Amino acid sequence: MSLSKIENLLYAAMGLNTASIGSSGVLRAVEQRMLDCKITNISDYTKILITDQKELKQLVEEVVVAETWFFRDTLPFKMLTKFVQQEWLIQNPDKQIRILSLPCATGEEPYSIAITLIEAGLMPSQLKIDAFDISERNIKRCKTAHYRENSFRGVEQSIRDRFFNYDQRFYYPDILIKAMVNFEVASILDEKFINTQIPYDIVFCRNLLIYFDRETQSQAAAMLSKLLNDSGLLFVGHAEASIFAKNWFVSQRYEKSFIVRKINDAVLLNKKNKKTSAITSEKIIKKNSVRQKNKRERRKVVRATGPVPSTPKPLLMATAKVPKSTTNNALLKAKQLADSGKLIESETICMKYLENNKTDKEVYYLLAIIQLAIGNEQKSLQYFKNVIYLDPEHYDALMYLATMLGEQGDELGAKRFRERASRLKNRVDLNRGSQ
Ligand SMILES: C[S@@+](CC[C@H](N)C(=O)[O-])C[C@H]1O[C@@H](n2cnc3c(N)ncnc32)[C@H](O)[C@@H]1O
Fold first, then answer.
1. What is the pLDDT of residue 222?
2. Ligand 1 pocket check: which of 64, 185, 188 to mutate, most ligand atoms within 8 Å of Cβ?
3. Cβ 112 under 6 angstroms from ligand 1
4. pTM of the predicted model as reported, rounded to 2 decimal places
5. Residue 414: which domain range?
6. Residues 222, 354: one domain?
C-alpha cells in the first residue's frame, strides 16, 4: 500500500511510470533512502515523503536511470554532422546554432554533440548547447566531467585522444569542449520553466519517454514542441519515434537515426522546398517509397533466387554488439557492412556464419538489428528471443523485446521483458556500488 503511494508521488514528481523500471526498482530506491534516513518503517517514510519536498527530491535522485555513454548509438551524431554540413552551414552561414540535450544525464550526450559540431567545422562561437536533467546529482557530475572507461564504449580512440585528457584515473573533456555546454537542473514536465526557453534548432531527447506512461509521453511531446523551433530537428531514442508519430511530430526515420520534425513543418517543407537540400521531408518521403519498392522487389527475388545485390540503403542503427576485439572476421565484416547500409550483404554473411555457429548470440543480435532496419519486425523479434535464450542477461535484447512488444500492444509481454531488464540493471548497479 505504502509502495503504491510512493509510486504515485514519483509519478507526480517526475512522470515515472513504475512499469518501466518495475516495482522492485522503486523499492530498491526506497530502501536505500530509508537506510540513509535511518527509518525502518515504510509507512513512516511515506508520511515524510508526502510533506517533505526535499526528501522527495532525494528519492527522485535515487530512482533515476542515468545510463548513458559518449556517442550513444553513433548514427544520430553522423546525421547531425550531415545536417550541419549539408543544410545548416549553407542556409545559415552567420547564425549561431542552438542545441538542447534533455535529459543530459551525466553529460556524455551534450559533450558528444559539442565534439560532433566542432568536427563538422563549426567554430565555438557558432554554437550554443544547453543541457538539462531533473537530477541535481547528475548535473553536478556533468559539471565535474570526470569519466571512466565505461563511458567510451565504442568511441574511436582518435576522438578520445584529441578531445579528452587523462589523469591516471579519469578522462575529462578538453576545456574548450567543456566551456561549450551550459548545464541546468530542470524537468521536461515543468511547464513554467519550459515556457521561458527560446526554441532550439536541434533538440536531443533520447531515452526519457520510455520511462513515462502514454499520458505523460503526450505531455512531454507538447513540451518538446515548445522547445523546438518550426524547422528544427528532434532526435529521439530508437524506441521512441512511434510515440511522436502518435502525438505532435511526424516520424521521418531519417536514415534510420530516428529524427522527427513538427508535423506542420514537415507538411510545409514538402510543399515549399521541392529542390533544396539532401534532407528535406520530401526527399525522405521519396526515398522511403523507393525503399519500399526495393524492399518489395527484393522480397520477390530473395524468395526465388536468394539475395540480390543491394541497392543503396539507409545506414543501420549501429548498435550491434560485436566486440571490437573479436577475432571473428566474418562477424566483424558483417557488422561493418550493416553499418554502411549494406544490409542484405551483411545478412548473407550472418546466415552463412550461423550455419557453423548456432550458439553465438552476437550473430542473432546482429540479425535482429538488420531485420528491424529492414522493417521486418516479426523476424527481428524472433532473433532477439534467440539472443536471450542464449544469454538471458542480454540487457539490450531485453529492452528491444520490451519496446517492440509494447508497440505491438502486448503490454503483458512488454512488462515481462522490462522487468527482467530492470532486475538485471538493479543487480549490476548493486554490484557496481559494492565494488
Ligand atoms: C537513460 S538517461 C538518458 C540520457 C541520454 N539522453 C541518453 O540517451 O544517453 C535518462 C535521464 O532522464 C532523467 N530524467 C528522468 N525524468 C526526467 C524529467 N522528468 N525531466 C528531465 N529529466 C528526467 C534522469 O535523471 C536520467 O538522467
1. 92
2. 64
3. no
4. 0.66
5. 282-434
6. no
